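On clarity, I found the account of how folds are encoded harder to follow than it need be. For illustration, here is how one protein appears when written out as sequence plus structure tokens.
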Amino acid sequence: MTELEKFRQKFRIPAYTVREYQHWVWSLRPVHTTIGCGVLSLRRYCPHFGEMTPDEGAELAYVAKELEAKLKAAFQFDKINYLMLMMLDPHVHFHVIPRYATPREFGGIAWTDEAWPKPPNSAAGRDLSESEAKAIVAHVLGA
């Protein structure tokens, strides 16, 4: 199994994809820290941010703008955090974590940003089921 296949499997990208772009894929995080949190990853394997191509960098700006607009419309986040650590997963990707000063209701659950206003705890959260992921994706894309 390639490094990219391991990454895609770990983050359940095929099942949790929100949208694919030419160079990037936006998917939900399987462990949901806050409602709407996701992973934005390069579609090709790339172990170093400095190895990103100019086309990938240009598209990143477009993707971030669209992603933020969709998440804002869907969940009215107060702030948004992008984390790029690549310690355990050596592939160019960002954890996208919308931040909320007050709880948000979705799917019969009160989603609370437990770390607000401090940095997010990306290891904390709840595991999403595939049905919850589908509902969130539908809501985000329909917003």
The chain has one domain: 3-138. The chain has a mean pLDDT of 96. The longest helix spans residues 54-75. Residues 3-138 form a domain with the HIT family, subunit A fold (CATH 3.30.428.10).
